[in-house]
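Record copied across here:
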Amino acid sequence: MRSTDLPRFACPDWWDRIRAGLTPMATVPLNEARAAKARAFFDRLRLPDVPGTPTLAEACGDWFRDILCAVLASEDPATKTRIVWELLCMVPKKSSKTTYVAGLALTALWMEEAPNRQMLLVAPSQNISERCFGQAQGMIRLDPRLQAIFKVQDHLKSITRRKTGTALDVKTFDTTIVTGEIPVLTIIDEVHELGKKAKAAAVMQQIRGGGITMQGGQVLMITTQSDEPPTGIWRTELQKARAIRDGKSGATPILLPVLYEYPAELQRDETYWRDHEHWPLLLPNLGRSIDMQRLLADYENNGRVNAEAERIWASQHLNIEIGVGLSGDGWCGAAFWEQASDDTLTLDSLIARSEVITIGIDGGGLDDLMGIAVIGRERETRNWLAWAHAFADPKVLERRKDIAPALQEFSEEDSLTIADTAGRSAGLVALLRRLVDTGLLPARDAVGVDPNNAAAVFEALAEGGVTADQIKRLLQGPALAPALYGLELKLDDGTFKHGGQRMMNWVLGNAKVEPRGNHLMVTKQISGRAKIDPLIALFEATILLSWNPTAAGGPSVYETRGMVMV
């Protein structure tokens, strides 16, 4: 396909560009005079925290100048209007992105001729916002000419261009930062951290509201990868950027992606990304702010301390996405989870395709999820088909603000129900009645339950029509160890399928495994405060289905094969 046939900002050869040392972004038409003006101003800025205070002409790589020009000088050749309204750059840690965006912000402020506008440089924490402001402030104080152009107000973290009155305000991300404002440019540093903030999506919508006014408003997001599975607004923005980059979005997107990352298959290949010969591909600032020998020493001395440290190190320095397939000390079956996904698999289709069903339920307190998992054995193929759901009390959203965006996302996916105690119980009862009515549950050992703190679960089982003989008490720990090994094998050989729920992907990323005697175990205690309840429920249902049950009143598996046991 010719480049002219591609959707705007699509860059299908992004990996080839990275390997060639080029910026992984689509070619953007520029107003060359404006681009030259932006480069000239940006290049004369000096680094205030480096010995010798070198200019950005010396200290900054061309990769960031490509971003600078795309943001400040893009232009449709036909209409002479801007075409890059948003840009997302994901680049590894220590690439001087905070310093560079401070320089870009000053350049944008200098080039904006309209009076009394507002620009924002937003960071997720006070420390980062203070560093952003400190870099911009330091650049101005190094140059008397810049001091004549800009007025710096330290106490307000504000920089104003004297000629126009347009101000650059450096702020910490908060739900009130843009109330009543329509910024002409908003720069967001470390946008991945916003995935942990409950109302980030609403604030982003406010920021983007400036883009539909006559004056327009641009958004530049620059970040490393998250040090945990992407959730919330960060997951949304990352998925959108990848879709645009790969040509799978609309014909005329407004967001330009610049993503320094390995292809997904290489991110899952630990032997590949652990080989430091491949690291320079993702380090556009190598030789400037990044020294290869120091990076290697940091990896050997800090990154390889344990599996968890390596996961975090790789996410920050190589943009490796943590989650399924990159679970470190997680369950080995997670590496095969994605390949077992079947997007057409729902609870309805599972029931329709199955000859017998087992259930696992893992309850908990108000700070926990209640997880339920259903596994059906498919007729003819005898493949296992899995579906899961979780219930959460609204109090969890307040008590665990760090995971609230993820839970809201799963609620929208309909893989999680947010309800009070009565609502959770009613939802579980309705689900159990539906499954009991199928006639596919075994007469004995049909529902596995962890008996600890499960009084409400047992009440729901009785109300849902589950008999005492159908309940099997399964304690977490050694009793579930066979399920870890059994599911790993079935995932690997392709005889286990699931519905591809994002909720379960997140749960698998939370799970931690610990050797205990001759067994490996996944428990809530090992995994800490992370939520894994639906996975525990899945292991419980696995144990029961591995006992080769038949549906109550139905023929045995041997009779269906034309055999009779004597």
Observations:
- Residues 3-267 form a domain with the Rossmann fold fold (CATH 3.40.50.300).
- The first strand starts at residue 86 and ends at 90.
- The radius of gyration is 27 Å.
- The chain has 23 helices and 17 strands.
